[in-house]
From TrEMBL, chain A:
UniProt xrefs under Pfam families: SpoIIM (PF01944)
Keyword Membrane: yes
Species annotation: uncultured Sphingomonadaceae bacterium
Keywords: Membrane, Transmembrane, Transmembrane helix
Regions crossing the membrane: 120-137, 191-212, 219-239, 245-264, 276-298, 310-328
InterPro entries given in the database record: SpoIIM-like
Lineage: Bacteria, Pseudomonadati, Pseudomonadota, Alphaproteobacteria, Sphingomonadales
Superkingdom in the source lineage: Bacteria
Record flagged with keyword Transmembrane: yes
Protein name, as recorded: SpoIIM
Length: 339, 285
């Protein structure tokens, strides 16, 4: 950098300092502005090489200015410029593609794997609730109306005939399949995100949501089973349910992780435990939304077009095996601990 | 030594943030008002986009009844509600349009890069901060006054999350807490003009006694007065200094203050070089 001669007779240190280093600050500001507006790719090779030098020069200017200058505007300017430069140099993550690859290859399965204990707990909770729901409705059909909202039941209640029930399992709807799939996906994903966020309240609301989900499941089985339609319902449910229920269970597990980390931080400080749990669980949640998108497609399109029980079971079983293999495949390296 | 003055400010919003080069950037946290403003701007922007999208889809649907349009709308709505904040905050500025307008950005508290997981975590938490109280309110409106006690309980419970930033020193939302982030001021600002530039000096000189009146705090207050350039303030300050220093009024308030600023600044800075920092007028010379 060519330092111009000091302005003759400048009494104040800040004036000389500005004259000597101002051009470097201007240059850095231009480069940082370019990176903020577009990306690091907008810089030429020369600029890229100059960037770290300018950044360090500016940081050092800041240190000097703080100790030797009383010009508050100057110090304030250098502070914000250094900060903006810092976040452009150290802040932005790798390119979009590298991030996506890392997510699918490593982060997502690792996050789900790290949640295995909570996942198991959420699964057990759902199954228990389903059993309770089944027993309740079998003993007293009046329970059905308390568990299932009217619009969800849609005629599938204990008074329905076997023929009517069978029709709900195999009729291919009114044609708006893709719309239905999109609706199911957005609705379920929103519920799953809520399930995750509620975990912060010491996991209790998350557990309640999972229990309710299980209760509804059991109640439906109690309606179909006496008519001899249990296997058919299972096939109807399996095609998308393996993905959907798995996703909801993971969402619950993510909520549990946050709630338990806040309540029982262990050796870490409460803040640190919450942060570690939050980032891990959020990574799993991105995956949950993707899983629910798959489930929406399977439910909205697959289930309505595939009407044979065997094919439904096959598709559902295959996707479940796929998920399990993807998440828990043995031999996945333990050298990348999640977090 | 530098910190002597800070304790007297209102709530201290500066946080230590040391770069790998060993320089403390002393980030300034975003104020509650600025953050609330940013959020309101973002919500308005989302609603505006939603309206534009709905109208477009509606018009297209009139032209051609296609299932695709309904899907686009459903997915677009979902993406807007959940993706708006996430997508903007993972960008190079780390800020939504609202935050940008208010001069804020999101930063990881540990100084590491802002990961996708952190951004998703801080924004997914909005479900309990905002939508939970809202849905309780909606539920109350739907059911009338039935179970007012339960509603009250639910509202105060969800209010804990909503007003969380008011209860902690670092202005953390629940989302910030879980994601390990905080929101700092990051407005780009231009370098103010050099007040001591040599061409502006008129050549007044001051006695030692006149220059010993003030310290750094008063100097920087004078700097603010000069930069604002408001006539009444300039006149008041000039009159005060003249009175204290026993100088005659020469009619040029602004020029007088500038010369006084230069002389005082030069004197205090020369003190800095030999390790004497006179914090304010009460400190000894």
């Amino acid at each position: 950098m060519n330092a111009p001669a000091f302005p003759s007779g400048a009494l104040v240190n800040a004036s000389r300092f500005r004259a000597a280093h101002g051009p470097a600050w201007d240059q850095l500001e231009r480069l940082v502005g370019l990176m903020e507006r577009r990306s690091v790719r907008a810089l030429s090779d020369d600029d890229l090489l100059k960037l770290p030098l300018l950044y360090r020069a500016t940081l050092s200017s800041l240190s000097v200015a703080r100790e030797t200058s009383l010009d508050r505007a100057l110090v304030g300017y250098l502070e914000q410029l250094s900060m903006r430069a810092y976040f452009q140099l150290y802040g932005p993550p790798a390119t979009g593609w590298a991030q996506l690859r890392g997510f699918f290859a490593r982060e997502w399965p690792a996050a789900v794997r790290a949640l295995w204990r909570e996942t198991l707990a959420a699964l057990v909770l759902t199954l228990l609730a389903a059993l309770v729901g089944y027993l309740l409705v079998r003993d007293d059909p009046a329970w059905f109306y308390r568990v299932i909202p009217q619009e969800l039941a849609n005629g599938r209640d204990p008074t329905a005939s076997a023929v009517a029930l069978r029709r709900t399992l195999y009729d291919s709807g009114d044609g708006a399949l893709a719309t239905f799939a999109a609706y199911l996906f957005t609705h379920n994903a929103q519920v799953a995100i809520g399930c995750f966020a509620l975990g912060f309240a010491f996991a209790a609301p998350t557990a309640l949501l999972l229990l309710y989900n299980g209760l509804m499941l059991g109640a439906f089985f109690a309606v179909f089973a006496p008519k001899g339609l249990a296997p058919n319902l299972l096939a109807w449910l399996t095609i998308h349910g393996t993905t959907e229920i798995f996703a909801i269970v993971i969402a619950g597990a993510a909520g549990f992780r946050i709630g338990t980390a806040v309540a029982f931080p262990g050796r870490a400080s409460r803040m640190d435990a919450a942060v570690a749990a939050g980032r891990l669980a959020a990574t799993a949640m991105i995956g949950v939304v993707l899983m629910l998108a798959v489930a929406g497609l399977l439910e909205g399109i697959g289930r309505q077009t595939v009407t044979s029980d065997g094919a439904r079971l096959l598709i559902g079983g295959t996707t479940l095996a796929g998920w399990l293999l993807y998440f828990y495949r043995p031999g996945r390296d333990a050298s990348h601990p999640p977090r | 030594m530098r910190r002597t003055r800070r304790a007297k400010g209102p709530a201290d919003l500066r946080r230590s943030f040391v770069t790998p080069e060993g320089v403390d950037l002393r980030l300034e946290l975003g104020g509650r008002g600025a953050r609330a403003g940013a959020f309101v701007i973002d919500v308005l922007a989302i609603v505006a986009v939603l309206i534009v999208m709905s109208v477009t889809v509606g018009l297209l649907a009139l032209a051609a009844r296609s299932e695709l349009l309904a899907i686009i709308w459903l997915l677009g709505f979902f993406l807007l509600r959940n993706g708006w904040f996430v997508l903007w905050e993972t960008g190079p500025r780390g800020a939504t349009p609202g935050k940008r307008l208010m001069g804020l950005r999101v930063v990881a508290r540990d100084g590491a890069r802002l990961t996708g997981g952190a951004v998703v975590a801080r924004n997914a938490m909005r479900e309990i901060e905002l939508f939970l109280p809202l849905s309780f309110l909606a539920g109350q409106a739907a059911q009338g006054t039935a179970g007012w006690f339960l509603t009250l309980f639910a509202l105060s419970w969800s209010g804990i999350f909503l007003f969380f930033p008011l209860f902690n020193r670092d202005r953390l939302r629940v989302g910030d807490l879980v994601a390990g982030t905080w929101v700092v001021r990051a407005a780009p600002r231009a370098l103010g003009a050099d007040l001591a530039a040599s061409d502006r000096r008129r050549g007044r000189t001051f006695s030692d006694a006149a220059l010993e009146l003030y310290g750094v705090y008063e100097l920087q207050t004078l700097e603010d007065v000069l930069r604002d350039g408001q006539n009444e303030a300039v006149a008041t300050v000039a009159a005060t200094i003249r009175r204290k220093a026993g100088l005659p009024d020469d009619g040029d308030d602004y020029g007088f203050l500038q010369d006084y600023y230069n002389a005082l600044c030069a004197r205090l800075e020369s003190g800095l070089l030999v390790g004497r920092r006179r914090a304010d007028k009460y400190a000894g010379t």
